[in-house]
Amino acid sequence: MAVRSTALPRGLSVPDAAAEGGGPGGRKRKLLAAAAALALIGIASLTLGARPVGLDTFLAAVTAFDPANGDHAVVASRVPRTVAGLLVGAALAAAGAAMQGVARNPLADPGILGINAGAALAVVAGIHLFGVSGPAGYLWFAFAGAAAAAAAVYAVAALGREGATPIKLALAGAVLAGGLGSLTNAILVSQQETLDRFRFWQVGTLSGRGFEVLGTAAPFLAAGLVLILGTGRVLNALALGDDVARGLGQRVALARAGVALGVVVLCGAATAVAGPIAFVGLVVPHLVRLLVGSDYRWVLVFSAVLGPVLLLGADILGRILLPPGEIQVGILTALVGAPVFLALIRTRKAADL
Q: Is the pLDDT of residue 85 over 90?
């Protein structure tokens, strides 16, 4: 009863003021700064590349587009790629933050629960059995595979009296990911044509994504983001432990299922659009906690804003390092994300959930 009389039912978290980023005013200022960084990286994505475009030309292309102008056409050609980076970055980062919260595991990401493995196997099956080609066709298979994998992991972890505990979720996910990965490799090594199609998608890229693909995936990404961003209080309660969460009135199994649904929608759609991209959902939430603390009402929002900053930044870097060619964004996020994450986990604060 003493717990119910404290501030826990309102905030469902009791971090100190410093860990919370200096209070609501400080967090709001940081959110404005994050939004400004997102706007700047969006402009950079439209202007930088193998053929850079000046800021004055960019403004002219936005305000008075001339299809006959080559520089204007370059800016226009980069719009779908930039939009894809915004949507996929927000989806992966928000999904990663939610997964870390629901599993109470600082290393949780779309791979630890087997979601990426399920999406990949479904895409390979679609290519091999139905001749599916292109991200628009991959979407439905990736979404179905991610949903089936998440349901299987949760069903296995829920067996027993304790239900789907964080440890059981992680173990079930690791086992399922290994099994699905083996099935995927078995198909790929026996079918050269399937391997040739799959390997370009598997690297992870934002290039070649038109508005047809984005239009198909955008409703799922938007719905998933709305669902996940509304689970901040639920994740705050789950972070206190299942017993405390139940004492605060949470239906733990239902809460985890709701968060898992949002994660599946986001990961399935994002993976279908850009392929499996690593470290965005792992690194960004930890960076966010360094900025604003562990309140998931803010962690989720900041992750959705800063995820695209990391993804588009890696994409820009891949375009300018080896012109006129480019390094795919999935490779850059791994190269940049791995050392950053290793530095983060050396600090106790970064590992706290």
A: yes
* Span 181-237, pLDDT tens digits: 888 888 877 777 667 666 666 777 888 777 888 888 899 999 999 999 999 999 998
User: At how many degrees (to 10) do helices 135-157 and 211-229 cross?
Assistant: 30
| DSSP per residue, 178-240 | HHHHHHHHHHHHH-HHHHHHHHHHHT---TT--HHHHHHHHHHHHHHHHHHHTTHHHHHHHHT
Q: Are 112 and 173 in contact (CB under 8 A)?
A: yes
Q: Are 337 and 278 in contact (CB under 8 A)?
A: yes
H-helix or E-strand spanning residue 32:
helix 23-47
For the chain, the domains span 27-334+343-351
Please give the model's pTM, rounded to 2 decimal places.
0.85
Amino acid at 320: I
Identify the architecture of domain 27-334+343-351 in CATH: Orthogonal Bundle (1.10)
Contacts of 195 (CB under 8 A, 6+ apart): 188, 189
Q: pLDDT tens across 115-144, in order? A: 878 888 898 888 888 887 766 777 888 888
| DSSP letter for each residue of 128-147 | HHH---SHHHHHHHHHHHHH
Cα–Cα distance between 100 and 104 in angstroms, integer? 5
